[in-house]
Amino acid sequence: MFIDKAKILIKSGSGGNGAIAFHREKYVAAGGPDGGDGGKGGSVIFRVDPGLSTLMDFRYKRKYAAQSGQNGAGKRCNGKNGEDIIVCVPLGTVVRDAESNRVLADLSELGRDVVIARGGNGGWGNAHFATATRQTPNFAKNGQPGIEREVILELKLLADVGLVGFPNVGKSTLLSVTTKADPKIANYHFTTLEPNLGVVELAAHRNFVLADIPGIIEGASEGVGLGHEFLRHIERTRLLIHVVDVSSIEGRNPIEDFDIINAELSKYNLELETRPQIVAANKTDIIQDEEAYKSFLAEMQQRGYPVFEISAATHKGVDALMDYTYSELQKLPPIQTFDVEMDLEEETRIDTTEAGFEISKDGNVYVVSGTWIEAVGGSVNFSDEESLQFFQRALKTRGVIDALVDAGIQENDTVRIGDLEFDFVW
């Protein structure tokens, strides 16, 4: 089964917590702090696997979580880093954030890994907090939490040329006679239930990728028939070969068919309206209505479309069509890729140079949020006076205290930072 869209949940590993420990050794009365740092959490990494052609695997496994880092230990022993998790996808997969629908990555080249959720940094052990005046710090820093998000995977085929047209007009036959692809071919509608790719090899170093897109019908852009599911695979193509059945053997009007398909393309994506098209007038060996055929040729000529009179079944005119297609591709820009719309590095970076927090109210509670302030708040040891003093100094030097006063906080009002709540004392 061809699956080209999936939604999954990914989660990077949390960083391990720093250790609170002191050097203990025989004949050493007062050893210093020697708590090790926590290990870094594993990241969720997406990688192109050339052996994959669909997103089928994501129907059965929908959650991918990297390993968390281990906590630090005494004797300055740092925690082990969590292992990354590699998520393999087919070439041409676009990864979007499910909440905002913004593009996180376009996996359109081999050999390039993309980190979609970076693991949290490990926390510092208490050895980092020793100073000349604070020689026995009884607190350490917690690790950063991992990132959890739902992402949407969309497979958009990487083909130079797309074959479009109504069902049963001969697209699969044309693909089979020009490439080594082996699509299912029969004389009934919707034979093609999934896109097929093939490489057209004209001569040494003269080749291009051709995709047979399942038949599009009227209403496809609104979800009618199979078109809605597969129109996305035309988005990357640089050129379209519009295959039209001009035989009139089924009583269809080729001009009307041509207009209906183009209308559906433009409704789905306005850019497709201007995509270059070559018209392949197919089944010219069995024409039933000569007048309708001549009218079609005249109309296409008037509109400025290049028309090739072919018969895919007998190979008539096919070589000339492929040669012309290759020459036109040389004039066009490379296959489209999607720009990244969300800066993942910026998202995971803790702000250490600016305020790094914001204040809001939840009922009567003043909520201080932000990556930096939540990381500091999670490290407080309320049973240790030095830890409290360190926390209070951090709030004061970063302007949190002044910001709370400006927000209208009063003595003994409740302040929440992450999972931490305390009464405000001025």
How is this structure best described in words?
The chain is of the alpha/beta class and 426 residues long. 20% of the residues lie in helices and 22% in strands. It contains 9 helices and 18 strands. It has a 6-stranded mixed β-sheet, with helices on both faces. Strands 3-1-8-5-6 form a 5-stranded mixed β-sheet, with no helix packed on it. The chain has a 4-stranded mixed β-sheet with strand order 15-16-17-18. α4 links the parallel β13 and β14. About 5% of the residues have low confidence.
The major pleated sheet works out as: 6 strands, mixed
> What is the H/E order?
EEEEEEEEEHEEHEHEHEHHEEHHHEE
Largest sheet, order of strands side by side? 10-11-9-12-13-14
Mean pLDDT: 84
Name the beta content range: 15-25%
Given as residue ranges, the uncertain stretches (5+ residues, pLDDT < 50) are 185-192, 223-227, 348-354
Cα separation of the termini: 65 Å
**Total number of strands:** 18
- Number of H/I helices: 9
Apparent shape: elongated
Instruction: Estimate percent helicity.
Output: 10-25%
Structural class: alpha/beta
Radius of gyration: 31 Å
What would you say about this model in short?
Helix content is 20%, strand content 22%. It has 426 residues and is of the alpha/beta class.
Which SSEs are present, and which pair or pack?
Blueprint: E1 5-11, E2 44-48, E3 63-65, E4 85-89, E5 93-97, E6 103-107, E7 114-117, E8 148-155, E9 161-164, H1 171-178, E10 196-203, E11 206-212, H2 227-230, E12 239-245, H3 254-268, E13 277-282, H4 290-303, E14 307-309, H5 318-329, H6 344-348, E15 358-362, E16 365-369, H7 371-377, H8 385-397, H9 400-406, E17 414-417, E18 420-423
Parallel strand pairs: 1-3, 2-4, 9-11, 9-12, 12-13, 13-14, 16-17
Antiparallel strand pairs: 1-8, 2-7, 5-6, 5-8, 10-11, 15-16, 17-18
